[in-house]
Design brief:
The structure is a single chain. This protein has 179 residues and is of the alpha+beta class. The protein has a domain at 2-8 and 17-49 and 98-176: Alpha-D-Glucose-1,6-Bisphosphate, Chain A, domain 4, CATH 3.30.530. Helix content is 23%, strand content 39%. The protein contains three helices and eight strands, in the order H-E-E-H-E-E-E-E-E-E-H. The chain has an eight-stranded antiparallel β-sheet, with helices on one face. Strand 5 and strand 6 form a beta hairpin. The longest helix has 25 residues, at 152-176. It is globular, with a radius of gyration of 16 Å. The termini are far apart. This is Polyketide cyclase/dehydrase.
Length: 179
């Protein structure tokens, strides 16, 4: 868990997405949005959303290994992580729950990611996928609201960078699948 907490507080080196922005913040929450053009069709992108082990950076997980991540892209499906334990006592984490699944168009989850899980907040993570040129455009937004023991305006840019890194991972995975 220490490793997972570190992701939000540490600086993040990454390739810049097509755009990345803190869309807004206030005393009670924030919204971030990232978008990329992907040289893969919407069906490929959507299918890969259900395989976070292929695109999520394991450094931003509780176990430190993306292979422990899973996401069932249906309403009620879990974005979960198995956390290997000592003496066979494994743990698990629910990062989010799917609340809207529209294959090849949109996937929406509800969940407070990372250290936000310890706060009294609700987060909504949305992936919008649309055809664009010879590929697709993916826009990821994350809206968080509720009580936090830190300033939303200070944490929002860091959350934005971490999520932008994950979106870049999705782009790389989708483009690696091209024939």
């Amino acid at each position: 868990m220490k490793r997972y907490r570190a992701w939000i507080w540490a600086g993040v080196a990454m390739a810049a997405p097509a755009y990345s922005a803190v869309a807004g913040s206030s005393a009670v929450g924030f919204a971030v949005e990232n978008g990329v053009d992907v040289s893969a069709d919407a069906a490929t992108v959507y299918r890969l959303l259900g395989q976070p082990a292929r695109w999520w950076n394991g450094e931003h997980s509780y176990s430190g290994d993306a292979a422990n991540l899973s996401l069932d892209p249906v309403a009620g499906g879990c974005f979960c992580e198995k956390v290997p334990g000592k003496d066979g006592k494994a743990g698990s984490v629910e990062h989010g729950r799917v609340i809207h699944a529209a294959p090849d168009r949109q996937l929406r989850l509800s969940g407070a990611l990372g250290p936000l899980q310890a706060e009294a907040v609700t987060g909504t993570l949305t992936f919008d996928i649309a055809p664009a040129g010879k590929g697709s455009r993916v826009v990821m937004s994350y809206v968080v609201g509720g009580y936090m023991r830190f300033e939303a305006a200070k944490i929002a840019p860091v959350v934005d960078k971490v999520l932008a890194e994950q979106l870049q991972g999705l782009k790389r995975a989708a483009e690696a699948e091209r024939p």
